[in-house]
Design goal:
Elements (H helix, E strand, L loop, with lengths): L4 H20 L11 H5 L4 H12 L6 H32 L3 H32 L5 H38 L1
Helix pairs in contact: 1-4, 4-5, 4-6, 5-6
């Protein structure tokens, strides 16, 4: 059963990436060319307002509801990607030695923190999408988002580097 955890979280991550791309496609506008990511990095009300207004002005669909739904889906996505990165970093750390192992264990914990920070980020975006936002909420959402992205990217880089290290060891032996 333990052997199936990593593939389970990997497949869940990939599936949720597809869901997020599909549900977030409508969120790409001139004011938000990267969709929901633009809202994540909108650090004050002067930045969030044009994004929200661009979504609200689309007549063919309720884009604000789509943005909320995309954010709700992100709660499922964060479960999978944080779990996958945590397990992947720990697995690589277990197959290596020295400072690379210590770094991997620390980075694995960072991946879990990325998931926790994503929850906080989502809460901030949902407040903004529900007309309860402010510059303070936008700034806090952006700060949390930047830290989350940094932790997740570090975990991805560690995983890719670890896979290369393990593959080169296998080729050499």
């Amino acid at each position: 059963m333990k052997k199936l955890l990593l593939p389970f979280f990997f497949l869940g991550t990939v599936a949720m990436m597809l869901v997020m791309a599909k549900t977030g496609a409508i969120l790409k506008t001139a004011e938000a060319p990267m969709g929901i990511l633009n809202l994540e990095f909108a650090y004050n009300a002067a930045k969030t307002t044009p994004i929200i207004n661009s979504w609200a002005s689309i007549k063919k669909a309720d884009v604000i509801t789509a943005a909320k739904n995309n954010t709700y889906w992100d709660f499922v996505f964060l479960f999978f990607y944080a779990g996958f990165l945590f397990l992947g970093c720990n697995k690589i750390a277990a197959k290596t030695t020295g400072s690379f192992t210590r770094a991997g264990r620390l980075i694995a914990k960072g991946a879990l923190w990325a998931g926790i920070l994503d929850i906080i980020e989502n809460a901030g975006m949902l407040l903004t999408l529900s007309n309860q936002g402010s510059s303070t909420i936008a700034l806090c959402t952006t700060i949390v988002s930047v830290i989350k992205w940094a932790l997740a990217i570090i975990a991805v880089l560690y995983t890719l580097t670890g896979l290369l290290v393990l593959a080169s060891r296998k080729i050499k032996s």
